[in-house]
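Running co-folding for adenosine-5'-triphosphate.
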Amino acid sequence: MNKLELTQLNKHYGKKHALKDFSFTFTNGVYGLLGPNGAGKSTLMHLITDNLKPDKDGGVVKWNGKPITELGKLYRSHLGFMPQQQELYSNMTAGVFLGYIAALKGIPRKTAQHEIAVALDKMELSDVADKKMGGFSGGMKQRVLIASAILGDPDLIIMDEPTAGLDPKQRVIIRHLTKQLAENKIIIISTHIVSDIETIAKEILMIQSGKLLIHGTVPELVCHVKQGEPTLENLYMQYYGGQ
Ligand SMILES: Nc1ncnc2c1ncn2[C@@H]1O[C@H](COP(=O)(O)OP(=O)(O)OP(=O)(O)O)[C@@H](O)[C@H]1O
Ligand SMILES: [Mg+2]
């Protein structure tokens, strides 16, 4: 069982205190990180993926008991990250793009082609591997990016708003594919759309102004709804509706 442990994480951008004493322990399964714009979701993900450092004395991220700062490259080999809002090279084919990402990740040439084929297959993109990405729909582009995050079969996958800008049908497809990835892994998905994660997340974390407001399974969380039906949508409105 993998374990990702965040202890008292704090991050300032200048005077802006973007993440405040954030502590949580993730184990294998899908987690949904819910919060409105500016809540601190991307900041948290950049700290987990070691793309940003916490403040001085601003807490620790541990992967299976060891601080990620000590693990360095070894940690990165366990990690797949899909950052928020990326551009794809429209003249590149999906296969070539993934080859490029595989090289960046240091996946040996011998195994890269196999890894790419597996990732394309998981994202149901095998048919379009040799097509230029400029002609892809929004959902296909997002799936190429998820494929790039899962190259090398990492056991910690972080996806920052993988369904941003997608229509409901594409959201359903991405949700379905994500669920299938989940075995023996930690997957953390940020979104501000409840239905993206409601049915697939083992646990949901709700974040506001850099703080972890509440976390739990959907049945646990909906007990906190004060007005209306006990739904996650109503809890979301209760916390963030005024914003
Ligand atoms: N590089 C930066 N410099 C200054 N302030 C920043 C920077 N990055 C983020 N912030 C601020 O930190 C806070 C948290 O931002 P963050 O991007 O983590 O939120 P988010 O939950 O990912 O929002 P969104 O849903 O819009 O992606 C916001 O107030 C944001 O304006
Ligand atoms: Mg963000």
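Result summary
The pocket of magnesium ion (ligand 2) is lined by residues 41-42, 84, 160 (CB under 6 Å).
The beta strands are 3-13, 16-27, 29-34, 60-63, 66-67, 79-82, 156-160, 186-191, 203-208, 211-216.
Job closed.
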